[in-house]
Amino acid sequence: MKKILLNPNPTRDINLECTKKVAAFFKENGVAVSISEEVEGAESAGAKVEPFDEAVKDADLVISFGGDGTLLDTASRVSSLGIPVLGINIGRIGYMAEIESHEIEYLQHILDGDYKVEERMMLDISVRRGNEVVFEDVALNDAVIFKSGVSWTIDMDIYADNMFISRYSGDGVIVATPTGSTAYSLSAGGPIIDPLARNITITPVCTHALTAKPIVLFYKRVINIIPHNKKDKASAVSADGGKEFELLNGDVLTIKMSDTKTKLIHVKNNNFYDVLYTKLSDRRFD
């Protein structure tokens, strides 16, 4: 391990306190440490301040400091480069993070080479308008199609490999990876799926039909969603809770498994089910 890029969320890591400790730890052990100039207060972190795109080019590892949103944003920026990500939780639940902010002693495993790299499936998302692709993104968790208002429902036709699945009418639809099965999809009644599985889940949100249930598809299926917006109403799509893109009637939203994978670093001996119970069980509030 020669160089590590630190990617903190300063609204979570107040005064970059955890970031400073991690930077000091690696520097003391002869590892070069960089931080993006985009980060507020970056100069105080005790790391080399560089443009993100420059810093990431020769990084062996990126460490995300914050909640799951920070980790998702980090993954979207580095996954295409094949660089692994380690999450340090400074959020409320931080389901996807590997360690908590008070557990930085686990970073010794990085120096010792005593860690595992786990590949997670991602989704390619695109919108075709006529003959032109007007939107593209990639998601580790999910693509969410939702209504842009509170007083109406949206209708959408859903196809898999050009086979009609259903028309949903409601608040929206979540198309999730196995990693995303424990995020918004779970809250909407979707199934929990082992993150190393390969499939795509379609979970309707607040639909007006007794038969509208989540559907788990073969991972190679290509999903097409065609919105039917009512007059003066709108729908939109968002990847991993990022910026929304408005969908117009006639648009075709395509979602499929991406060739890009997110690589997550594991330094603990726990497993998916340990994390599931610890972080999502109601006992965490005891």
Describe the largest sheet.
6 strands, parallel
Could you give me the name of the CATH homologous superfamily of the largest domain?
Probable inorganic polyphosphate/atp-NAD kinase, domain 2
Helicity level: 10-25%
- What structural class do the secondary elements suggest? alpha/beta
Spans with pLDDT under 50 lasting ≥5 residues?
none
Give the ordered list of helices and strands.
EHEEHEHEEHEEEEEEHEEEEEEH
Number of beta-strand segments: 18
What is the class of the largest domain in the CATH system?
A: Mainly Beta
Number of helices: 6
Tertiary shape: elongated
Supply the number of structural domains: 2
Rounded to the nearest angstrom, the distance between the terminal CA atoms is 39 Å
**CATH architecture tag of the largest domain:** Sandwich
CATH topology (level 3) name of the largest domain: Tumour Suppressor Smad4
Kindly report the average pLDDT value: 93
- Our Rg estimate from Cα atoms comes to 20 Å
Strand content: 35-45%
Question: Strand order, biggest sheet?
Answer: 3-2-1-4-5-6
